[in-house]
């Protein structure tokens, strides 16, 4: 990547260094998250519980982006790493005496293990990353639908093990209660911002660039895929680690953890967030997850009955997911690349050079943005 | 030339095809009259295939007029165009490899209801390409490239089209196979089916076709008659662009 | 010896059910490139029809389940998938995931979260004794039903004019259209067939369980989908065998895993799926397919 590329501000006439253009794609999402979170916690204190969930989910969605967005490979399996992270966090932070009473058959080293919240968070990330790394060796040769289904099988496998193996958790199907709330909203926000920075940073790396460049060709030439497979495994591991962190944050927000929580509904919600925002950019992941979380919050209020003037609006419970699903389907039909078009935030002062308009971070990217949604001219009408 | 007396089979004017905003065919106008064989030649990427696909609406296209015997094709789905009487043999002759040769041929006659006519046409196709009757029960995927091309042409003929459009029927064929295919095309034409043929073999095409359009960068740059077939300088120029 | 035979028959019947589910998914994928997650909700819809209508009249219930399944299958295409024809298989899969979740919630709203019980074909829940073998009638009926449907589908696809056209559309959609094959009709026929297959699955499963809830069809569809993928999605026979294998393995694990490991039978199936995909990334039957595709 040549860093000499610059763009001219049309009015002012000085050159904007490439670094600024690319940092812009990070700063805007960070500021937006920070502003939204601060606004909500100050203006709508009642919404702060949902804000905690929103930030934890944001971490998970951004983690998913770092694999799906860069590799263009569909994964339905990331909730496996989320579950592993949530499990790790719970096992390390639940009070040992509580632990021994709800999980009598726990393996001894787990029964005695405990850590302070930050260490537990890191370990959760490592656990998610290692799980992803190991499974990545098996799964990353696949692409397309096969990859989607195989990652899904991985999720089911992990959930089944967590459900039934009482050496690593509660008796079959029961939940782990008493997970302490380790982070307040402020720290949650900071952790979310750090995750965004990490995911973005990975996106700037050479490995991620190569992966993006391969999105188009990987399917056509799996023979040349040794390198690609490696870069995919790296992406999978990194995104698994971030997802583990997301799971840990989610666990300490929800405070009750059970394997079945990480099933189809949660998978769907996170995928919908990614699709709605645009799965090919961090900006898309951020926008999608904030938007759907907000929508969820409002719908939740409506489900409980909301007073608008003299009218009480009340939706049947379960309508949240209906609306989210309908919204996602509509986006898929009318704007398949998502609200952001799968693009990063662009420098607002459009440079006159048509080549630079393609987005500051990665020239020629627009064409590839669309690969996951490529149109097949064979199917007109 | 007294074009006015002859019947127009295909009339195309102002055809445009673009992929992702990049034009492949711009403002193209041409026609095919009854009983004619009309050629389109041009370098790789000139937009020849796009023209044919655009006419049958297999890719998105725009035009001022696209009509087959006066019937407007522009708003039709590809299958409706086929049913209106325009059979296209696509580049690389996509036959259905897992189905038998006979089933492939049967698929060509999807839209037909006249059993008698179909039986006649089938006999004729078997006469044109005897290999098809010999290998009727084989999976089509096992045929050689040239045989597959014959199958694709035979399949298109069984639709009893008003116009047969062929995209590079000689692609990848040996010289004798090319001769077989060209001979078949001439007898198809002689039987009254108008033919629109896209080709790389300029000399042979110009010599056989009533009229040959030269396409470069999505536009018609020249129209050649059979007399031009031996003018190699002209053909060179046609390819290199003027 | 006898328990072995008995468990093999059970496994065959379980395999037959998942083979039907996989076949429906594989057919639709062939023509539409849609790996339809929401197939589960078609099964669920048919199951509700069976359970709710059976007490009134059993022929009516059978008819209703088939009609509901076909209607759902066509409607979801009309509402969602037909607007996405030009999009990638991945997008279609995600959209069908959305439709699936949406319909699950709709069932929840209409029929409630709890299971609805009702006896469907109670006569089939008995067992018969054949030379010391205790055979469940349902297992036998399931095997016969699947065999009949599979043969019917096979003959339809290979012997009828329409079936030939469906095969052509599945092999190369654009080429089929250029030949004059009506895409809309092919799609409707395929969706209709998948609806019938879903209704058959619903029949066997409701007879077995006598109960239905909003997520009733999810498991069969998951295993069907997974079976279709490991068999090779672009080959209808492959999907079929894959689905059968998944059901067969699941049933054998259920019977033969030592107690204590029984809980892990589903996990084992998923593990097996991953291993199979590792060995044959495009599905077990993909090798021949790739060669034949020119
Ligand atoms: N599906 C497509 N998507 C994008 N661009 C396309 C597509 N098909 C063709 N093109 C482009 O359109 C232009 C014309 O292509 P076309 O296939 O019509 O050429 P052609 O004259 O048939 O060439 P050839 O002799 O090689 O067959 C080319 O530049 C090609 O790259
Ligand atoms: Mg061409």
Give a structural overview.
Helices cover 62% and strands 3% of the residues of chain A. By secondary structure, chain A is mainly alpha-helical. Chain A has one domain: ABC transporter involved in vitamin B12 uptake, BtuC (Orthogonal Bundle). In chain A, strands 1-2 form a two-stranded antiparallel sheet. In chain A, strands 3-4 form a two-stranded antiparallel sheet. In chain A, strand 1 and strand 2 (15-17) form a beta hairpin. In chain A, helix 1 (18-43) runs parallel beside helix 12 (282-303) and helix 11 runs parallel beside helix 13. Chain A is globular, with a radius of gyration of 21 Å. The two termini of chain A are 40 Å apart. With 242 residues, chain B is an alpha/beta fold. Chain B has 9 helices and 11 strands. In chain B, the strands form 2 sheets. Chain B has a 6-stranded mixed sheet, sandwiched between helices. Chain C is mainly alpha-helical and 294 residues long. Chain C has one domain (2-218). Helix content of chain C is 73%, strand content 4%. Chain C has 12 helices and 4 strands. Chain C has helices at residues 2-32, 39-53, 58-79, 89-111, 137-159, 161-171, 173-178, 183-209, 218-231, 236-256, 265-279, 286-292; strands spanning 116-117, 127-130, 133-136, 211-212. Chain C has a two-stranded antiparallel sheet with strand order 1-4. In chain C, strands 2-3 form a two-stranded antiparallel sheet. Chain C is globular, with a radius of gyration of 19 Å. At the A-C interface, helix 6, helix 7, helix 11 and helix 13 of A face helix 4, helix 9 and helix 11 of C. Adenosine-5'-triphosphate binds next to helix 1 of chain B.
The CATH architecture of chain B is 3-Layer(aba) Sandwich
The CATH topology of chain B is given as Rossmann fold
- Can you tell me the number of structural domains of chain C? 1
Distance between the termini of chain B: 26 Å
Structural class of chain B: alpha/beta
- Structural classification of chain C: mainly alpha
CATH H level, superfamily name of chain B: P-loop containing nucleotide triphosphate hydrolases
Question: Spans of chain C with pLDDT under 50 lasting ≥5 residues?
Answer: 288-294
The helical percent of chain B reads: 25-40%
Descriptive keywords:
heterotrimer, B: 11 strands, 26% strand, globular, C: 294 residues, mainly alpha, two-stranded antiparallel ribbon, 12 helices, 4 strands, disordered C terminus, binds magnesium ion
């Amino acid at each position: 990547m040549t860093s000499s590329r610059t763009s001219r501000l049309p009015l002012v006439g000085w050159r904007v260094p490439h670094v600024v253009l690319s940092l812009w794609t990070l700063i805007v999402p960070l500021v937006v998250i920070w502003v939204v979170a601060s606004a909500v916690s100050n203006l709508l204190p009642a919404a702060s519980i949902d804000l905690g969930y929103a930030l934890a989910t944001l971490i998970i969605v951004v983690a998913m982006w770092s694999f799906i967005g860069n590799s263009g490979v569909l994964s339905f399996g990331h909730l496996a790493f989320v579950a592993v992270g949530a499990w790790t966090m719970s096992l390390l932070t639940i009070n040992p005496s509580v632990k021994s009473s709800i999980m009598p058959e726990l393996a001894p080293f787990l029964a005695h293990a405990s850590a302070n919240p930050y260490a537990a968070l890191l370990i959760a990330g490592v656990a998610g990353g290692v799980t992803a790394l190991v499974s990545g060796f098996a799964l990353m040769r696949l692409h397309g639908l096969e990859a989607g289904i195989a990652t899904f099988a991985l999720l089911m496998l992990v959930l089944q093990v967590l459900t039934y193996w009482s050496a690593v958790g509660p008796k079959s199907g029961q939940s782990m209660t008493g997970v302490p709330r380790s982070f307040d909203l402020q720290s949650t926000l900071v952790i979310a911002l750090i995750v965004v920075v990490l995911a973005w940073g990975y996106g700037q790396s050479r490995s991620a660039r190569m992966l993006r460049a391969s999105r188009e060709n990987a399917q056509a030439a799996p023979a040349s895929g040794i390198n690609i497979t490696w870069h995919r495994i790296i992406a999978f591991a990194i995104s698994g680690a971030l997802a583990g962190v997301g799971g840990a944050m989610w666990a300490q927000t929800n405070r009750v953890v059970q394997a079945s929580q990480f099933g189809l509904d949660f998978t769907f919600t996170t995928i919908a967030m990614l699709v709605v925002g645009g799965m090919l950019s961090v900006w898309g992941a951020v926008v999608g997850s904030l938007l759907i979380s907000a929508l969820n919050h409002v719908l939740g209020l409506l489900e409980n009955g909301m007073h608008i003037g003299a009218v009480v609006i009340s939706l049947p419970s379960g309508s949240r997911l209906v609306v989210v699903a309908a919204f996602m389907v509509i986006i898929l039909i009318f704007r398949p690349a998502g609200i952001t078009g799968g693009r990063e935030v662009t420098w607002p002062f459009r440079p006159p050079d048509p080549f630079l308009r393609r987005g500051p971070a990665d020239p020629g990217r627009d064409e590839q943005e669309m690969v996951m949604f490529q149109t097949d001219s064979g199917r007109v009408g | 030339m007294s074009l006015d007396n002859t019947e127009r089979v295909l009339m195309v004017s102002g055809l445009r095809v673009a992929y992702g905003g990049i034009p492949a065919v711009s403002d193209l106008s041409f026609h095919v009259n009854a009983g004619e064989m009309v050629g389109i030649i041009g370098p790789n990427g000139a937009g020849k295939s796009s023209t044919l696909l655009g006419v049958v609406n297999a890719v998105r296209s725009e035009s001022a007029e696209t009509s087959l015997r006066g019937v407007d094709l522009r708003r039709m789905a590809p299958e409706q165009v086929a049913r209106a009487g325009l059979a296209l043999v696509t580049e690389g002759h996509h036959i259905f490899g897992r189905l038998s040769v006979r089933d492939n041929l049967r698929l060509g006659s999807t839209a037909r209801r006249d059993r008698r006519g179909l039986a006649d046409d089938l006999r004729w196709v078997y006469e044109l390409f005897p290999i098809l009757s010999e290998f009727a029960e084989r999976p089509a995927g096992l045929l050689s490239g040239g045989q597959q091309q014959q199958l694709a042409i035979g399949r298109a003929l069984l639709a009893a089209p008003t116009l047969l459009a062929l995209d590079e029927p000689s692609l990848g064929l040996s010289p004798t196979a090319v001769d077989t295919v060209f001979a078949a095309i001439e007898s198809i034409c002689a039987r009254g089916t108008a033919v629109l043929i896209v080709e790389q073999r300029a000399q042979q095409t110009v010599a056989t076709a009533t009229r040959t359009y030269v396409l470069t960068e999505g536009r018609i740059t020249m129209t050649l008659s059979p007399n031009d077939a031996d003018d190699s300088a002209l053909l060179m120029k046609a390819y290199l662009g003027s | 010896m006898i328990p072995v035979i008995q468990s093999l028959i059970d496994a065959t019947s379980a395999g037959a059910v998942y083979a039907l589910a996989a076949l429906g998914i594989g057919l639709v994928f062939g023509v539409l490139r849609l790996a339809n997650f929401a197939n589960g909700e078609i099964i669920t819809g048919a199951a509700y029809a069976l359970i709710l209508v059976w007490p009134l009249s059993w022929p009516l219930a059978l008819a209703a389940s088939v009609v509901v399944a076909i209607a759902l299958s066509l409607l979801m295409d009309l509402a969602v998938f037909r607007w996405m024809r030009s999009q990638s298989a991945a997008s279609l899969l995600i959209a069908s995931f959305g439709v699936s979740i949406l319909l699950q919630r709709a069932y929840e709203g209409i029929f409630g979260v709890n299971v609805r019980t009702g006896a469907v074909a109670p006569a089939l829940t008995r067992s018969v004794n054949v030379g010391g073998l205790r055979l469940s009638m349902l297992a036998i009926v399931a095997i016969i039903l699947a065999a009949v449907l599979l043969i019917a589908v096979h003959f339809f696809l290979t012997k009828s004019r329409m079936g030939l056209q469906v095969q052509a559309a599945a092999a190369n959609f654009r080429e089929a259209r250029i030949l004059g094959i009506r895409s809309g009709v092919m799609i409707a026929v395929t969706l209709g067939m998948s609806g019938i297959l879903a209704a058959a699955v619903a029949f066997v499963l409701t007879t077995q369980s006598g109960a239905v809830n909003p997520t009733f069809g999810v498991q069969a569809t998951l295993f069907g989908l997974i079976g279709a993928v490991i068999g090779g999605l672009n080959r209808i026979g492959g999907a079929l065998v894959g689905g059968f294998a998944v059901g067969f393995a699941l049933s054998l694990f259920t019977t033969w895993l030592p107690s204590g490991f029984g809980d892990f039978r589903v996990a084992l199936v998923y593990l097996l799926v991953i291993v199979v995909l590792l060995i044959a990334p495009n599905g077990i039957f993909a090798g021949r397919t790739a060669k034949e595709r020119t």
